[in-house]
Amino acid sequence: MSKVFSMSQSLAGSAPLIRFEGVSKSFGSFKALNEVNLSVAAGEKIVICGPSGSGKSTLIRCLSQLERNDAGQIWVDGVEVGSQASQQSQARSQIGMVFQQFNLFGHLSVLDNLTLAPMRARGMARKEAQDLAMEYLARVDIAEQAHKFPSQLSGGQQQRVAIARSLCMRPRIMLFDEPTSALDPEMIQEVLGVMEGLAREGMTMLCVTHEMGFARRVADRVVFMDQGCLVEDAPPAQFFSAPRSERCRSFLERILHH
Fold it and tell me: What values do phi and psi take at 222, rounded to 5?
C-alpha cells in the first residue's frame, strides 16, 4: 500500500477527542482495516470516502464498538474504547450513530422512537424525555410528525427522525454511515441540510459518504481509504485540487465525472 499522505491531525495545543492507533480488523481472511492511525480534534468534521470494501464503515463501527477491533487501540476523550466495561460504557455514551437504513421501530410512533433510549438507558422521566424529543424533532424540522409512525413518513423524514433520535442521547460525537445512500435524490438535500446545521454548531462528526459537495462545504479534512488503509488525509481544498496519491486521484476522477 502506498504511503499515507496526512496533515496535522489535531488542533494545535489540544489533545485529540478521538484517536485510532494501529487499528486492524479482519473478517475471516479479509483484512477490513490494516493498522489505521487517525486523530480527530473536538469539533472537527471528517468526511471518509473510498471504494466499496475499503474499510470506511468498519472504521466508524469499531469506534462505536458495533465491531470489535482485532488489534490496536481506539481512544475517546482519553478513555480506551473496548477496555473495562465501565470505561467502554463511558466512551460509547458520547457517540451517536446514523446508518444507511433508518432502523426505526415500526410499531412505535416517532415520539416513542425518540424517548425509548433516554428513558431506558438514562432513567429519564417520560415527560422530560418527551420534551427533549420534541426539541430535537423541531431541530430537524419535523416536529409536526411526532405522532405518526415511520411507515407514514418519506425516506428523508425517517432519516431526520433517526438523526434526532441519536441527538436525544446528547452525544459529543456523531457518526454517519452513508446516511443518504438509501434516499431518493430529492430527499438527499434535506438530510444533508440537517448535517450541515450540526456541523455549524460545532458537533464533532465522522461522515462516511460519497456526497463530495457536502465534503467541500463542511469537512475540515477529507480522508481517503483503500484496501483497509488510510491513504490520504487533507483539507478539502488540497484533497480535491491536488491529491498526492495516484489511487486517490483515480478515485476522484471516477466519482466526480460519473
Answer: -115, 130
Query: Domain limits of the chain?
Result: 5-94+171-256, 103-170
Superfamily of domain 5-94+171-256: P-loop containing nucleotide triphosphate hydrolases (3.40.50.300)
Distance between CA 124 and CA 202 in Å, rounded?
A: 26
Tens of pLDDT, residues 125-164: 999 999 999 999 999 999 999 999 999 999 999 999 999 9
CA distance 168 to 184: 26
The H or E element spanning position 236 is helix 236-241
Residues 6+ apart with CB under 8 A from 124: 115, 118, 132
Residue 122 pLDDT grade (very low, low, confident, very high; cuts 50, 70, 90): confident
Cell (9 digits) for 228: 483497509
Distances (CA, A) of 103 to 39, 112, 116, 127, 158: 29, 14, 13, 24, 9
